[in-house]
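Posting this for the archive.
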Amino acid sequence: MARRLVRPPRRPRAEAPAAPQPWWKRWWVRIAAVAVPVAVALVTLALTDVYGLLKTKVSAGPPSGLKADAGWPAADGCDLVTAAAMVKGGPPITELDIDDFEKDPRTLVTEQDGASWQDGILSLTFSTEGAEAISISAVRPHILGRSTTVSYDWVLRKTTSCGGGDDPSFLRFDLDKNRLVSIEGGKEKVRSEEGGSLLTGETVKKGSPLYANFDVRSCTASYTWTLEIEYRQGTDRKTTALGPFRSAGGVEGIPVYDLKPSESGLGRELVDTGTVTEAGCGGEG
């Protein structure tokens, strides 16, 4: 009887024990296991702080220098001095929002590339939030350009007051003569040299702002100009500028419109005066 030979299973060969790791490798693994999570946490925290700084603007406190604000060209709704002219090709006067009581319509004209006509009122406010007093060295207009070829479509004025009286004393920038003049009782009392200033020596302190209104006159041409302000803060001499502004005059034949209260008393109405401008500041024809 034949026998089937079955080979017994091969016994697995015993593996040699692994060689022990050097002591410095064992300690390095332990240190890395602790250091990596700590480093990740620190980087995440740092990025979070940087992102927070980018999102939140760090306040540096109030500015300590001179702050200058200007209202132009109408002092307020009762101002009868200011007139405004729209440059040729600008919006027609029928599109002017005369019932916008947030802004004087004459101011709206200058914001649409128009100009003050013959007279405009520049209302200045100088203030500071710093503890140090500021001394005004000079406030003067600087003419950037003068032209006698600019044309205008219409002029808007206001002849009906809303109460109060005109101040007989005021300061004037005469752009045609490039000088500042003090008007007292309708007469010129003080005149500066050409390019001079009448506010030299005035002081501005925190909680004690300086207010000044100027009549800006232009009778012979169209001007683009800025207001240059020089001041001293401690031992430092500084300058700033406002503008540019536009003023016009010296053009005849422009239709003149008047801004009057409506008969109902609830708004304003536009009146065609049937007159046109003359070449100088003498009136209308």
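Residues 23-55 form the longest helix (33 residues). The longest strand covers residues 134-147.
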